[in-house]
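Q: Given only this backbone (434 positions), what sequence would you predict?
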């Protein structure tokens, strides 16, 4: 949505919403077989009620088992072995309600129940793992779970459930999901997988937060055309090579402020083509036209999450007069949901996935998109902190004025109704392309 000289910013802040309430359940999956306790994660919306969602609850076989105030729900419920019809419901402040049914089967025996990936499946990287575990041999229950890849332990987590993404190169893998109980016992399940796509030409730009060449711009409502500093009403800055907070010891701090409500700051980094910062000008136009798949993989951190209206993560490509803008924004004060960018009609469209980053901790976002063989934009999936949501939505390409030729990424921070100053950090920012 970015146009200024060599960047195309066509940003219109339209938050399209349904006229009715809805409940999005990210865990458990409908029809899944799993162990107890069962981890429930859900988000409710009520756009027809100005005051929003009042509370959410879980019914088990038509009996209300749990209630939580607010528009988000994150809890565990213990079950005996058996099959259950469960319902996650939201109630708004105007007397309305909506719900989603989730049928589950709970096993009472010792074991590990892997719902993703399935055995002998062909998958793309990052690979989404989701599993639960039970034990009937230890009264104290399951202590922790982990994932082995070719006999090497790659991931561990506390408790009886597991939900994460693992980055794996193309190839065949024998993976094992294991549980360890509080009595010294263990159980496991083998999951053989084949990681596909980009096996011959997949490439990655790594640690982009520390790269030179970032350029920042301001955006002012109502039209959100970008402007160079000074830009009356909005201020922005960035500082690289931060030691703390940091995952790698080399994070970058981004700051947004100003006086005009709902003003934004956009930072962009050219990767291939014009204004490349990675030494890849592609003057003969032999690289960019061959690219079809992209993964935006980054960690972000803030202690001021409530001050953010939106955080935005974009992938852009322009060639042969065509424009491809895979815009992805996480509405925070704007509603805790993901939107994607329709770069033909120039508007944001709900992705159908909740966005609930944590405050005062590192959040891991992985976005997968594709340029199809007929030059459409495919938004494949968005993963936040291991919770992966398949989007699978297509949009037509746009037109690119001035024959701009390049491949770039953006990071954007949006101000709230008071334009209160706040900061975020980026680290371990990688972009994979093939």
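A: Predicted residues:
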């Amino acid at each position: 949505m970015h146009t200024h000289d060599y960047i195309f910013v066509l940003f219109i802040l339209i938050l399209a919403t349904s006229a009715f309430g809805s409940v999005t359940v990210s865990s458990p999956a409908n029809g899944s077989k799993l162990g107890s306790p069962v981890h429930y994660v859900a988000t409710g919306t009520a756009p027809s009620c100005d005051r929003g969602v009042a509370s959410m609850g879980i019914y088990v076989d038509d009996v209300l088992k749990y209630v939580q105030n607010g528009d988000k729900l994150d809890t565990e419920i213990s079950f005996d072995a058996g099959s259950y019809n469960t319902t996650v419901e939201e109630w708004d402040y105007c007397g309305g309600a909506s719900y989603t049914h989730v049928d589950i089967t709970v096993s009472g025996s010792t074991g590990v129940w892997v719902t993703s990936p399935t055995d002998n499946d062909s998958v793309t990287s990052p690979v989404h793992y989701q599993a639960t575990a039970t034990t009937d041999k230890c009264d104290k229950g399951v202590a922790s779970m982990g994932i082995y890849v070719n006999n090497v332990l790659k991931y561990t987590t506390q408790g009886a459930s597991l939900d994460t993404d693992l980055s794996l190169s193309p190839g065949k893998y024998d993976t094992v999901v294991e549980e360890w109980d509080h009595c010294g016992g263990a159980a496991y399940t083998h999951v053989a997988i084949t990681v596909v796509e980009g096996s011959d030409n997949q490439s990655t730009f790594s640690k982009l937060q520390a790269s030179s060449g970032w350029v920042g711009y301001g955006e002012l409502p109502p039209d959100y055309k970008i402007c160079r500093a000074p830009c009356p009403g909005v201020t922005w800055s960035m500082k690289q090579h931060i030691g703390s907070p940091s995952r790698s010891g080399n994070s970058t701090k981004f700051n947004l402020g100003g006086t005009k409500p709902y003003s934004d700051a956009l930072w962009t980094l050219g990767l291939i083509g014009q204004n490349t910062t990675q030494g890849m000008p592609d003057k003969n136009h032999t690289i960019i036209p061959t690219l079809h798949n992209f993964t935006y993989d980054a960690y972000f951190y803030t202690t001021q999450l409530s001050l953010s209206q939106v955080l935005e993560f974009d992938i852009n490509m322009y060639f042969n007069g065509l424009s491809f803008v895979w815009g992805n924004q996480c509405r925070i004060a704007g509603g805790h949901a993901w939107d994607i960018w329709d770069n033909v009609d120039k508007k944001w469209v709900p992705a159908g996935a909740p966005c609930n980053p944590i405050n005062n901790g590192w959040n891991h976002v992985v976005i997968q998109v594709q340029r199809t063989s007929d030059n459409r934009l495919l938004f494949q999936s968005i993963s936040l902190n291991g919770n992966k949501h398949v989007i699978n939505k297509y949009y037509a390409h746009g037109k690119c004025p001035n024959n701009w030729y390049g491949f770039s990424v953006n990071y954007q921070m949006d101000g709230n109704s008071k334009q209160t100053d706040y900061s975020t950090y980026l680290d371990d920012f990688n972009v994979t392309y093939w």
